[in-house]
Amino acid sequence: MKKIFSAMALSLLIGMASATAQEIKPFVEGERAAFLGNSITDGGRYHSYIWLYYMTRFPNMPISVYNCGVGGDTAYDMYKRLDNDVFSKNPTVLMVTFGMNDSGYFEYNGDNAAEFGEQKYQECIENYKKMEQRLLQLPNTRIVALGTSPYDETAKIEGNLFKKKNETIKRIVAYQMEAAKRNGWEYLDMNAPMVALNAKGQEKDPAFTLCGSDRIHPDNDGHMVMAYLFLKAQGMAGKPVAKMEVNAGKKSVVAAENCTISNVKKVGRSLTFDYKAESLPYPMDTVPRGWGYHRTQAMAADVVPFYEEMNQEILKVTGLSGNYKLLIDGEEIGVWTGKQLAEGINLAKESKTPQYQQALAVMHLNEMRMEIVQQMRVYAWCQHGFFQQQGLLNANNRKAIEVMDANVDKNGWLKGNRDNYSRLMHDAVREARLEQHQVLVDKIYEVNKPITRKVELRKM
């Protein structure tokens, strides 16, 4: 697929659209980063993609990332579960996003849409103020205000279309950004840059959207764009996986950024050297993952300059002529000309490299980890989206099951997740799930360590 538009134009567009963005401090070793939100956070992947970046780019700096999303939540719903579901995780940094549900839905197509939008805006701000007061009481937690991804009103697709809904969302985001400035919090508006990217994509394809088939829930590529915007705000643009330059004629190392190059040799028709990076390339998933998702994480590279800005593993070799086969640890990667090698090639785009395959293992372990998290978030939804209203929060007893069973025929989501709750209501089962999660995290930080690779350029 061709890129929708150039990397330079993308960077300019995103920069203009996110003019209200303040730099977000990068995570540090031991950070406990919690993402508080609604279903976009609950069932989405942007926080998992962000953690995958840290897993591969900073393999010796373990952090923890927590999904604190619950589907259907408004700012008030989040306020009610702060102690039980969020503060209990002892976050050192808390990302807060809301607005999609707060802004309402069907009434935008009614006769009093403007009045409805104003009503929902005022309700949201009053509810947010309650949450804001609680957040201000956290002396040891950094707060990051995230303006929500947009509701896409402009894509020419089938499905619910609530005109002017995103206008209300934009007002909510603007208030949230101003409150963050007032409180000295970090902040990032994801709405404006994603609206701009949607508009640009729709110039060529009117059905293009980063916001999913329902205009609300970003697909995998949309979540990767959200991760990109967050990482860019953390200052990750321009930080390479590695950059290496070797002069073949002099058998010398010209440059080595975030890596070490040694034992440069020229034997017969081959140039060889040892290469050890401090990071792994970021693996871009080519499988559409998640219920109802049709697009892949890798498709985000057609929309934002992630490879150009954040996924550069550059091999540059001067002094060669003709065609050369590249082998790493004996594995054939491809063939390039001496001119191409002198200009530099991005190994992060080559999925055959041993280091990329190593990164893929990290990606799959991270997906397995996320599957457990999603089961736990369904349990959290049952607790806070249903039992809390019944006065049975964390009851986990026969009474809770009886009340659930009395309501499953009236609530399809409850019915679909009864089995998950009936298992996780038991302390031992939840403990086992959390232990499995920790095993996966430990394995990730075991297998994500870069190792020394043998690079060979063999003349054809």
Give a brief outline of the structure.
The protein is α/β, with parallel strands linked by helices and 460 residues long. Helix content is 42%, strand content 18%. Strand 8 and strand 9 (270-277) form a beta hairpin.
Describe the structure.
- By secondary structure, the protein is an alpha/beta fold.
- Helices cover 42% and strands 18% of the residues.
- It contains 16 helices and 14 strands.
- The strands form 3 sheets. The chain has a 5-stranded parallel beta sheet with strand order 2-1-3-4-5, sandwiched between helices. Strands 8-9-14-11-12 form a 5-stranded antiparallel beta sheet.
- Strand 11 and strand 12 form a beta hairpin.
- The chain is globular, with a radius of gyration of 24 Å.
- The two termini are 30 Å apart.
- The mean pLDDT is 94.
Features:
460 residues, alpha/beta, five-stranded parallel β-sheet, five-stranded antiparallel β-sheet, 14 strands, 42% helix, globular
